[in-house]
Amino acid sequence: MKNRLFYPFFLSAWLFLIPVCDANNAQHVAPEAGGRNYSQNFKDMVLAICVANAYKSDKNAAIDAGSSASALRDWAYYDMEKAPDIITKLVDGYLTRNYHNPLVESEVKDVRFDFLKCLDLYHSHELEKQARLLVINPDHSYRTDTPQVNKPQKR
Known about the structure:
By secondary structure, this protein is mostly helical. The protein has helices spanning 14-17, 38-54, 59-74, 83-95, 102-107, 114-122, 125-134, 142-145.
């Protein structure tokens, strides 16, 4: 299939069951990404992929960012056939940039500014252009397109 599309038909139930705990009182909340539009979730997913790649030598950071990218993938509606290669090219291109700051480098050896590179990618015209090309129904969201998710379940 030349234009195989990814659509979040099966959002994993565990995403709605993840407890997000407040230090003072344990409250369970659903991730907010399901209410953000597909275009925003696509760009957030690219940022999470960039962070996961940038910090792959830090196991906990890479797992967290990679898991976040996977969750965001469920709330984005985009061309799944074309996007992976484009995302890889964008992320690799930004992470191979050579940023310098003599003041920081004199105090911190081997600083790479990888997070700054990921933020620059996130705010780039290149990512915005690709989101316009790859995201289907960019102003829609998973929750508006899947109203049964918002309905309380009958007992």
